[in-house]
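dumping this here so i dont lose it again. seq + smiles for NAP
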Amino acid sequence: MARRLVLVTGASSGIGAAFARQFASKGWDLALVARREDKLKDLAEEVKARFGVDSLIIADDLSDPDAPARIVKAVADAGRQIDGLVNNAGAGQPGYFTETSWEDQARFLELMATSYLKLMHLIAPDMAKRGFGRIVNIASVSALLPSARAHTVYSGTIYPGIKSLLIKASEALAQELGDKGVHVTAVAPGYTWSEFHDVNGARATVSRLPKYWMLTAEEVAIAGYDAVERGVPLRVPGAWYKFLVAVARILPDPVGRAVMRAQEKRMQAQAGGQAASEGA
Ligand SMILES: NC(=O)c1ccc[n+]([C@@H]2O[C@H](COP(=O)([O-])OP(=O)(O)OC[C@H]3O[C@@H](n4cnc5c(N)ncnc54)[C@H](OP(=O)(O)O)[C@@H]3O)[C@@H](O)[C@H]2O)c1
């Protein structure tokens, strides 16, 4: 029997590469998607050597509305079916919503939300027909915590809202598809070591955070793989972030926002005036 195959978007670094390694370690073949083909090839060679699994390399730009259909076709053209999907590709859209162009916001939405939904819409029906599927959507803990003004500075004003959409859509799809053998899980990481904060310019600020605020990409991938295997619709990796989310759920909204503002001020002071609670 052919090995199962998981399509991982944003596999050229960080959380996506860690998910690819995690699935490969469990014997899954991979379809690796990102723009940097050289990084995908390096990862494909690494997992072949370590775990003996095969990879398809699909270099594409998920902010292009036609990319999801092209990617799914590339896998079909290679004679493979998609048994798993890790929707992970992403980057921040720094700057105030009202001061950036609609074209930039539209590209951001396409990359961070629409491409995720399109890939699920293209892939999940066949999974349901076959009675097996594993889908992971990478959200963010920022969607589960009170709004922070500083999200705007690096990740984008609508970043937490987009991640909320992914959580609610994952929970609803988990219900829609659960009895058809298709597990859908949203993973909501906090600050994670990756290239994310180099790309969005928050590296200096994030480097000043206490160690217990930082997750590794491997921790996120192990937690996400475990959750989707078990059919858990939402997983928050790490004890610190589980605690923060539990507290946020019991605090009245105005109190939660006040706590977040106080925390932002403290971090700004520590960072010498830089906005400091953005990014996750
Ligand atoms: N790091 C954190 O603190 C954190 C916290 C919560 C959630 N997240 C989420 O985790 C996900 C992965 O981020 P990461 O932390 O692993 O960051 P990362 O190391 O910067 O990885 C981002 C990945 O997305 C790919 N990507 C970016 N734009 C793309 C595009 N237009 N088309 C195709 N691929 C694209 C990048 O590859 P190429 O550049 O090669 O295209 C890269 O493989 C994101 O959805 C992010 O919102 C991150």
